[in-house]
Amino acid sequence: MAEIKDRENALIMETTKGQVVIELFSDLAPGHVARIKELARGTCSMARAQNPNSANSQFFICFDDAAFLNRQYTVWGQVIEGMDNVDKIKRGEPVQDPDKIVSLKVAADVK
Prior knowledge:
- The protein has about 110 residues and is of the alpha+beta class.
- It has one domain (about 5-110): Beta Barrel (Cyclophilin).
- The chain contains two helices and four strands.
- Strands 3-2-1-4 form a four-stranded antiparallel beta sheet.
- Strand 1 and strand 2 (about 20-25) form a beta hairpin.
- The longest helix has 10 residues, at about 30-40.
- About 15% of the residues are buried.
């Protein structure tokens, strides 16, 4: 596992494709980080509707450069381990038999 510098500001996500570790940017996006940590008692899914203030409990990981999202969405973290597992996640609209988040926990809560 990658060295996690601040276990209070990191998530360990278990997916059906393997583990993903996400470093949280609590200094840049304190509201989003607080919300995602609050929801990390199990499966959670920070996307939003057209209203930029509607983000609440869904999030997404970009597979590639997504400059078109600049100034539209808040970056609240980055994958520091397991991007190879993210790359294995099924894609499509709609995805047939989608992969799932099995658990999502704040690293400090993982023994």
